[in-house]
Amino acid sequence: MIVEAGAFVLILSLVLAMAATGLALAGRLRLSPGLSGAATGAMVGSAGAAALAFAALIYAFVVSDFSVSNVAANSHTDKPMLYKVAAAWGSHEGSLMLWCLVMAGFGAVLALGRGLPFRLRTSATAAQGALTTLFLAFAVLTSNPFNRLDPAPVQGQSLNPLLQDPALAAHPPMLYLGYVGFSVPFALAVAALAEGRVDAAWARWVRPWALASWAFLTAGIALGSFWAYYELGWGGWWFWDPVENASFMPWLAGAALLHSAVVTERRGALKAWTVFLALSAFSLSILGAFLVRSGVLTSVHAFAVDPQRGMVLLGILAVAAGAAFALFAWRAPTLSGGGVFAPVSRAATLVLNNICLAAAAATVLLGTLYPLMLEAATGQTISVGPPYFDLTFSPLLAAALLILPAGPLLAWKRGDLRGVGQRLIWAALAALAAGLLTLALHDLGKALAAFGVALGVWLIAGALSEVAERVRLFRAPWPEVRRRTLGLPMGAWGTTLAHAGLGVFLLGAVVETSFKIEAQGVVSPGGVVQAGPYAVTLNSVGVVEGPNYLAEQGRVTVARTDGSAARDLTPERRFFPTGGQTTTEVGLDFRGLDDVYVVIGERRAGADGQQAWSLRVHYNPWARLIFLGAALMTLGGLVSLADRRLRTTPVQPRKAAA
Prior knowledge:
This protein is an alpha+beta fold and 658 residues long. Among the domains are: 1-164, no CATH class; 518-620, no CATH class. The chain is 62% helix and 11% strand. The strands form two sheets. Strands 2, 3, 4, 5, 6 and 7 form a six-stranded antiparallel β-sheet that branches. A four-stranded antiparallel β-sheet has the order 1-10-9-8. Helix 10 packs antiparallel against helix 13 (346-378).
């Protein structure tokens, strides 16, 4: 009965989203607050119905109702409760249901939003309602999560064992809060184009949504990367996999949108560009959904679904993005003008930042789509991997990061380059010292790594220098410094955390990538594999039984080569009888900022006739900083959201004199 109720309220959510779209359009055309209020009620009702439908789906997983095909394909009675719940969004149908819930929920918040002018709010509600209608129709007509099986199987097939992990249980909700969150800037951009109103106030309304979406997307990408790091057993955290790129592209566009919206708000400039980025960020999110669900990619991240449903998603992308960009092409000539600024100013650095980020996103898009287009056109299969991205993406990102610390220290209209240089002298010296020290400890073959280390220190020291300048540290009495510190806006703290977090991430990524050591051996109990300064001894291997798997569990001791600081780990090789899949559970020894990463492989015949096992060991220096940096960036975004200035209407910038 609950499943039937879930199917009913899912259809009801679709009907209410359609009603919200129609009522909002009618209210806008007739300038009728009554019709607009009805549209708001319909949007809220659609969100409520979607929430009830999603709750019914979770219930079906919790009680193992295998008469529901989605549950039968992705759950099992022996599966732990956490993964029964997570399985509700672990399949194509369930994840699409989560997408629709988030989109309808954000639509309700947008429709209820205070402070938005009547016309803009009504038009944005209509745009968000239309997007929600498209995706709910896709769910109801082609990917209904409540479809029944008759006869119902006695047991389910279970969720892919690789997805049965706490980090991946939280990964999709975080990712979708980011992905779908960009639908609101998209809707606001469409509304602004329709109304012919793109100004500082509009940019202020866009910024909180873009900021929240970017922060959640950062957390979602970091969780997915951390899962790939310790669950897949390959020793790395990023492989430029096309599905990884699918989430990274809207992240880059969202970062550019955040900085561009600030220029539009403060100087009244970059109006057309800010609108373009708002449209692009969500369009790239839809493109990512198509890549993951269409079957055109083979990846552990991708949903194995039929291409026909992928083509429906491609149609949604064509309708939504096509209509929006057509409107943009029509209205863009009217969006010129705005405040002027000198080549040396904060606004100019943000423009350069946008150019680099947009070009970087374009290189990722090209590297992701080119193999697919080439295969479709010629049948030739190629792969685009790290060498391409190292050559194209890395220089663009480096250019953006070099100018990043200077921006907040410059005035908006005309900055003092010499003064900024004086304020950043200590950051520059710290970066130079870090780079030279890296070279001194290694050789010239690590020159790029030394540059990366210097760049990471430059970002961190630059962010701290900005705070020091704001509070007049070392230049004012302590009571004055304390007063300024306590009065510093939350947005300033958030910016500092995000920029410093980017520097921390860069330090970890550069050091881990450039100086990691991998060793492998086939060893019997008592055998040793050495990686860098650590020796890993295989003590024994036994069989353990989990809730829904059997495992060969190795017991290993990790110690420094001098024999000190020994610790025990238990890497596993798990076999899941349901589905017949084998996975690895990595043994991770956290050594300060470093990781010692141990993977036990298949049983082999040892040289002395004893049983032996393949043992792979990675020494990953400063790997902790990669995920700490992502956490700091996410925290910075959330702290900035608490800034009360984002909840007030800005003063319109004065027009430049003729």
